Amino acid sequence: MLTARRRVVASAVILAGSLLLTSCGGSDGGSSDGKTLKLWHYEGPTSAMGVAWNEAIKEFEATHPGVKVKYEEKGFEQIQKTAPMILNSSDAPDLMEYNKGNATAGQLSKQGLLTDLTAEATKRGWDKKLSAGVATTSMYDTNGVMGSGKWYGVPNYAEYTMVYYNKDLFEKYGIAEPKTFDELTTAMDAFAEKGVTPLANAGAEYVAQQYLYQLALSKADRSWVDKYELYKGRTDFHDAAWTYAADTFADWVKKGYISKKSTSTKAEEAGVSWIQGKAPILFSGSWWYGRFQSEAKFDWDTTLWPGSDLTLGSGGNLWVVPKNAKNKDLAYDFIDITMSKKIQNLLGNKGGVPVAADTSAITDPKSKELISNFNTLSQKDGLAFYPDWPVTGFYDVLVSETQKLITGGEKPDAYLSALQQAYDKGAPKQ
What we know:
Oligomer: single chain
Structural class: alpha+beta
Order of helices and strands: EEHEHEHHHHEEEHHHHHHEHEEEHHEHHH
């Protein structure tokens, strides 16, 4: 999410009451009482991760009598903006969900704000449970670049983006469900002609920029992604892929596929509009999947973005242990439980993409489809990370510049020039 997902903007609710949990063991981040685990995460209670992690807390309670978990409600955007300040203080939590990538977890690791988890990853076998592609975002070098170096985070799920479509709305308006990119644009034309804005969008957060990045990915290959995300060559924002993406996105706004009013819309609002049946199509991440299973009251389905070998995706957001955490051993134990077969299987059956589940234990049909599509992407090396990852502060640049593209306040060429300037300012010199 941020996927900057990501990640997900739905805020978690505070767990009712204190939950008794536990451990023995201290840490080097301050005074440890060994009786409290201060936990922050921002997954909604009905999401696959929220359900699985609440169960992990119960499991932790059963195996750690006498310890309390102090869970604090946080939002994705809140943590995204305040993490460096909080983690550099005595108020840091013991364990926190945090966005992955160079500009986020990589930056914090470079600043010395995260605990090196390499020894624990080896000792507890986390390194063996994660595939190479998923583990990419767990490791960062001394410059904060992902893919190698020390372990600073552990994802216990994976994620990717897809096209969600409301089958009932397609049927209501007599529009064929799309299987190809041409059919997708034909369907959007048909909805627009009937006065229905086809795409749920959020210009104030990550959704809009992810539409645009996906359009670029449909004209890109792995070497293009490596240049952009890993600095393996120079990124040119006026190349064919980026130009196509900006031109097409602007054209979609003109054609009414994307509402100009969505400039100030947040991701939660976009997701809710789709849940309420107001928009037939939403392109977003698997982090919504479990929630849609619980809350959408209509027939729906998903498909990978048609006509593209690449899509946004990676290992999920990371469990990170702040350098100033007071009860690190408790944090390691909790991570370990979220990586267990029991929790992984539950996450898979609730609409998540587990990283260490027993595949035969996933029985829900929609969940099986979700995991099958992820495996298809993984096998063809189709996970292309997220557009805001390469440089610090790029998320905010993408939000503000893409808003201008929606309003028409900036033309595609100027938009791409603004991205180039911000990227070049923050990326390592080639």
